[in-house]
UniProtKB/TrEMBL annotation:
It is found in: Cell membrane. It comes from Algoriphagus boseongensis. Gene3D superfamilies: 3.30.70.120. It holds the Pfam family DUF2179. It comes from the Bacteria. The lineage of its organism: Bacteria, Pseudomonadati, Bacteroidota, Cytophagia, Cytophagales. GO terms for cellular component: plasma membrane. This is Uncharacterized membrane-anchored protein YitT (DUF2179 family). Residues 230-286 form the DUF2179 domain. It is a multi-pass membrane protein. The chain crosses the membrane at residues 12-33, 60-78, 85-103, 115-137, 158-184. Keywords: Cell membrane, Membrane, Transmembrane, Transmembrane helix.
Amino acid sequence: MSLDKESVNWKAIFNPMSLVSILLGVICASIALEAFMLPNKFLDGGVTGIAIIVNLNYDVNLNLLLVLINLPFFFVAWKKIGKTFTVQSAFSVFLLTLVLHFLDVPAVTEDKVLIAVFGGVLMGVGIGLIIRGGGLIDGFEVITALFQKNSALSASEITIFLNSLIMLFAAWFFGIEAAMYSILTYFTAIKMTDYVVEGFEEYTALTIISKEDEKVKELIVKEFGKAISVYKGERGYLPETFHIHHPCDIIMTVVTRLEVHRMKLAIQQIDPKAFFYVQTIKEVKGGIIKQIGSKHN
């Protein structure tokens, strides 16, 4: 199967499960903003945090800010990461602005701890569901991935550094207390995002057993730019046909949370009956690991 990196995979974009996941994620993120964060000047990190600061201080429309601030990040993603990923992310942001425009949710509580915790939980669940659908609502992750290539810092260290700057601005504009609660909101959202996507781990080992093993290997290495490990094994041994089995290559690769969804869809296009399973990994060193995206779209 040949996947052109210059084209948009519309089948992946309009996958029903992806659309449902993105829609649910956008609704959760919108409720977090409307019912918890905005009324109390609490921030999330990244583009959302910047947009809230500008919105609350200069009365610029939040929806407009979310689009304008994300645009340069998505332009970079279109050039460097993948067109399908960029289209899905742009669609997620558009959907977020649409829901925010029509959604009117009153503040749920005045307890600042509850606001920070549950606002972060809802925002994290929303972001996690959107990532599972193949998109993003925060272009900061794109920049983080690109900076990591030429930096000794890890992706998490770069993310924390950039968002620390945002929290300093929050302290300047809204006061130390609001900034402290915003930090609580932000870290709660991070943990919930990781949990929704893949537990508390960032990297994932994907193992595939397929009758089209050569095509799957070519897809992963040439289209996704990932290294693979190959084990010699046998497939078959089903309960009804235990005596039927065939030699095959068992393929294992390490991917990031943003690549799992797209890689699974691409493999299923090659072999709809392919068997694969996912394992979380606590630490990865060496080899070829990319934090976000790939040449594949």
